[in-house]
Amino acid sequence: MPNILRLFLLLTALLLCAVHGSSMPSDCDDDGGDNECSAYLPPAHNPHLTLRNGVRMPLFSMGVAHVTSGSPLVENNRTFVGFSPSKSFRQIELSLQKGIRSFDTALVYGTQPHLGQVLGQWWASGRLQSREEVFITTKVFTFPAHKFGLKRNHPWNLNDLTPQQVSIQTEDYIEQCLHELNVGYIDLLLMHWPSGPGQEEGISRQRRLAAWKVFEDFYDRGWVRAVGVSNFSERHIDQLMQDGAIIWPMVNQIEASPYLQYESILRYCQDHEIQPQSYAPLGSGLLNVQEDAVLLELANVHQKDVGQVVFRYLIQRGYAIAFLTQSPNRMVSNLDVFDFELNEDELKAIHSLSRVNATFGVPTRYELPR
Asked: Is the keyword Chaperone in the record (predicted)?
């Protein structure tokens, strides 16, 4: 190739990288370390699921909740535990570069402003063209704050408020979400927890309904495209509808992994047109899922890694998946699960791994009021 042509191609590549604010593409460290992968990929293959109201929700979403010290729910953890929102800047940027367009955040995570800021930079540079290209999930309502290094009387708990006060506070928090995200509307708004631990059942039901009525109002006004719940048992949803809810939850996001499987909740959701969504699909790195002998064997059979086998299992069970990684490689490989299928025996083998109260163990670990 003539030298002048080589020079032209090199200058063209450098110019394109400058326009996109990135360096020349490079290989990614598997742990997302210093050797950052900056190669831009087209939107990832991420099939959409249709919710009961017709809204199309991506199968996969990137979680942006960064907690120090591994898990905040490990008992007797004397190390400081809290959210570290600053970690989300790079993670969101890399996720977008790898083609991910669906994100899962929450008011308590502190990452909503970061998500809105990075998305704004992409719209400003033309790397994203419209709001419709992105799907954003966020969450409000009561939260076990003391487990996350926050005071027990933190306002996000909402456990010491009357139902009338809950209505006012929930409206304020949803407006705060809209302001922090600064992207217009919210695609999916979830009620984060059904209640805090140790709450009396009757008042908890009233608070849930009060908050849900605010959800319904924002949905009716068009500020929220879909509404749902998180960490709810089937009894919590039944109570919500019995107590006066008009709109059924469209999604129930619960912890679900090979080691923790709530069969009754899954069946209930599927029977009532509620899309189940798994978070912590690999046990948040606390359960050594990646070293499980059964999963390793299946990964070898299908020439995949354990994470891909787990994601395939959850998809075949009917779950959408919200996962968290800071590794650019994982951002790509976790979605590469559509070229193989688990047979019935393999599904049963993974199903047999279910334990009791694994990892976070919600929604039952805290014996939340029914």
From this structure: no
Cβ-based neighbours of 72, under 8 Å, separated by 6 or more: 81, 82, 147, 148, 149
Tens of pLDDT, residue by residue over 131-149, are: 999 999 999 987 655 555 5
Q: Rounded CA gap, 260 and 351, in Å?
A: 9
User: Quick check: 366 and 197 in contact, CB under 8 A?
Assistant: yes
Q: What is the pTM of this model?
A: 0.84
Report the first-to-last Cα separation within the chain, whole angstroms: 73
- Cβ-contact 355, 260 below 8 angstroms: yes
Burial class of residue 120, CB neighbours in 10 A (0-12, 13-18, 19+): middle
CA distance 329 to 315: 20
CA–CA gap between residue 329 and residue 90 (Å, rounded): 14
- Range of lowest pLDDT (4-8, 278-282, 364-368): 4-8
pLDDT tens across 264-294, in order? 999 999 999 999 999 999 986 666 888 999 9
Helix (H) or strand (E) holding 123: helix 112-125
Closest to 61 in 3D by CA, of 73, 47, 80: 47
In order of their start, the domains of the chain are 41-351 (3.20.20.100)
Residue listed under structure tokens 């998809």: 315
Q: Residues of the chain with pLDDT > 90: what percent?
A: 64
Q: In which element (H, E) is residue 13 found?
A: helix 3-19
Q: How many angstroms separate the CA atoms of 86 and 93, rounded? A: 12
Helix (H) or strand (E) holding 172: helix 163-181
- 8 Å CB contact between 276 and 257: no
